[in-house]
């Protein structure tokens, strides 16, 4: 493992901290209006997970259409939102697991499994959205999937990394708890004549 290796007692909060970071990025993705934006001026199109907005080149007011009118819009929002809710539950379980010494390693691997479920739901939502959006919504000018969509992917990548660590952490339970005795190596002079 890493030099800290999660073997030091202070490092036990690193994984819940990363899950908290994933939650913050998920909130930004859910609330952000930058899933799709115009790439250059004039900025005539922007979209969130929930709606798509357009305006004329000279118009200052946005005209918005709900993506919940489309089946794929509801599916993308639902899968990402379900993944986010499970992520919040995993965060709460991780805090409990690392706070109570007796319970810590009893269900850490289960949290890792749930995090893989979170990643699957989020990936489904993040793939459905751009594929169906570009098929069903008329795009004006040059557009790009922007910062809020990127936060959605960043949250998913952090969740996948944490899932691997949560699944592998029980393999190093003794190292984390400091239950391993140091190993001393001794060689007798007869076996190592070159030491004389």
From TrEMBL:
CC terms in the record's Gene Ontology section: cytoplasm; desmosome; plasma membrane
Protein family membership: Belongs to the TMEM47 family.
InterPro entries: P53_induced (IPR015664), PMP22/EMP/MP20/Claudin (IPR004031)
GO biological process, one term: cell-cell adhesion
Pfam families: PMP22_Claudin
Transmembrane segments: 12-32, 77-98, 110-131, 151-172
Alphabetic keyword roster: Apoptosis, Cell adhesion, Cell junction, Cell membrane, Cytoplasm, Membrane, Transmembrane, Transmembrane helix
Domain of life: Eukaryota
Membrane topology of the entry: Multi-pass membrane protein
Protein name: p53 apoptosis effector related to PMP-22
Protein's UniProt keywords contain Cell membrane: yes
Subcellular location: Cell junction, Desmosome; Cell membrane; Cytoplasm
Signal sequence, start to end: none
């Amino acid at each position: 493992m890493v030099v800290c290796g999660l073997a030091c007692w202070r490092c036990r909060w690193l994984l819940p901290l990363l899950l908290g970071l994933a939650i913050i990025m998920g909130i930004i993705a859910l609330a952000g209006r930058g899933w799709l934006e115009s790439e250059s001026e004039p900025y005539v199109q922007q979209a969130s997970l929930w709606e798509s907005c357009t305006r004329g080149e000279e118009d200052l007011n946005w005209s918005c259409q709900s993506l919940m009118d489309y089946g794929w819009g509801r599916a993308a929002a639902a899968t990402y939102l379900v993944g986010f809710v499970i992520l919040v539950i995993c965060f709460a379980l991780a805090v409990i697991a690392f706070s109570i010494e007796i319970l810590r390693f009893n269900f850490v691997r289960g949290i890792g499994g749930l995090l893989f479920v979170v990643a699957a739901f989020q990936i489904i939502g993040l793939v459905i959205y751009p594929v169906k959006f570009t098929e069903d919504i008329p795009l004006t000018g040059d557009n790009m999937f922007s910062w809020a969509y990127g936060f959605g992917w960043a949250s998913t990548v952090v969740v996948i990394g944490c899932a691997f660590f949560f699944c592998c952490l029980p393999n190093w339970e003794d190292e984390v708890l400091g239950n391993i005795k140091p190993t001393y190596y001794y060689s007798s002079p007869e076996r190592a004549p070159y030491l004389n």
